[in-house]
Amino acid sequence: MRTITAEQPLRGRTILLTGASAGIGLAAAKRLAALGAHLLLVCRNQARGQRALAEVQAAAAPDTPVPELLLCDLAQLAEVHKLCDEVLSRFPKLDVLINNAGVLPDKLIATDEGHELCWATNHLAPFVLTNRLLPLLEQAGAGARIITVASEAHWLGEIESTLEARIDPNRSSAFTAYCDSKLANILFTKALTERLELTPITAHCLHPGLVRSNLWVHSSWFMRAMMVLALPFARSNEKAAETIVCLVTETDPQKLNGAYLKSCRPARISSKAASRAEAFRLWRISSDETGVGE
Fold first, then answer.
1. How far apart are CA 119 and CA 106, in angstroms?
2. What are the tens digits of pLDDT across the range 202-236?
3. Which 3-state string (H, E, C) describes the chain?
4. 260 is catalytic
5. Rounded to a whole number, what is the distance in angstroms from the first to the last CA of the chain?
6. Are strands 202-207 and 145-149 parallel, antiparallel or unpaired?
7. pLDDT for position 229
8. What pTM value is reported for the model?
9. Which CATH number applies to 14-290: 3.60.21.10, 3.40.50.920, 3.30.565.10, 3.40.50.720?
10. Would you kindly state where each structural domain of the chain is located, as residue ranges?
11. Which portions of the chain are predicted below pLDDT 50?
12. Which residues, 6 or more positions from 207, have their beta carbon under 8 angstroms from its beta carbon?
């Protein structure tokens, strides 16, 4: 039996990470592999995924299980379900689920399934993944955790009750849709904490900071221009990934159960994000729209 060392504290742990082909996700994956974890990398694009896979494997600690690439377009819930089916059939346990993938498009976009793109990718996909993979997290036992990448943008978010409202240009924009999805990330974490109270699984969320990542590449010209002005103050992907790594390696995750972190420390959230009623309302809406989590 291999022993866990101070240099490889994650040896023997299996971690599924979405949005792993670039940016914060790739930076986090490389660091976690270097600490001995077995990485399951969820990417949308085969070519980019293969490049990320090679980088993560090159960064991995000696004798670490070879990282694996899982392809999925998280904007399509049918594909998310197929991903869950594959993971459930192939792996006996999952120690950590990291819901990292996120999009910020240049305009409101409805997916083929009728969902607003940010809502589907940034919130509904994590909702489905988490609920369906809970049995594998339960098999991991003590120390199993769910980590969701949120944002300070949640302060501007609202939870719309209908699909129609989310794709109505008179009510929403791509940026407000992004803010709404980030508020949902925090409320989802709060609701999970209550639902998992009698299990060893913990739930956490975080703000990675203003990052020099590819999130902004497909956003509006205004958002890209703002990002250019903010570049001198932006973090590298490696720096932004530190809070993810902190949460994965935390030896006492219960003390941070339900917490929202910035720079590895608990941080303030908006009154809406702290609302228990809003968390339950979000769960009901999400369950109705996905058919899971009932």
1. 14
2. 999 999 987 655 554 555 555 554 454 445 456 68
3. CCCCCCCCCCCCCEEEEECCCCHHHHHHHHHHHHCCCEEEEEECCHHHHHHHHHHHHHHCCCCCCCCEEEECCCCCHHHHHHHHHHHHHHCCCCCEEEECCCCCCCCCCECCCCCEHHHHHHHHHHHHHHHHHHHHHHHHCCCCEEEEECCHHHHHCCCCCCHHHHCCCCCCCHHHHHHHHHHHHHHHHHHHHHHCCCCCCEEEEEECCCECCHHHCCCCHHHHHHHHHHHHHCECHHHHCHHHHHHHHCCCHHHHCCCEEECCEECCCCCCCCCHHHHHHHHHHHHHHHCCCC
4. no
5. 40
6. parallel
7. 44
8. 0.92
9. 3.40.50.720
10. 14-290
11. 1-4, 216, 225-226, 228-230, 232
12. 150, 151, 152, 243, 260, 261, 262, 267
Question: Within 13 A of 214's CA, how many CA atoms are on the CB side?
Answer: 11
Side by side, the strands of the sheet bearing 145-149 are: 68-71, 38-43, 14-18, 96-99, 145-149, 202-207, 260-262, 265-266
Q: What is the per-residue burial (b if ≥16 Cβ within 10 Å, else e) of 240-251?
A: bbbbbbbbbbbe
Q: What pLDDT is recorded for position 171?
A: 87
Whether 104 contacts 118, CB under 8 Å: yes
Q: What pLDDT, in 10s, does the model give residues 128-164?
A: 999 999 999 999 999 999 999 999 999 999 999 999 9
Residue tagged 């941070």 (tokens): 256
Catalytic one among 127, 178, 216, 283?
178
Six token digits for residue 243: 């809070």
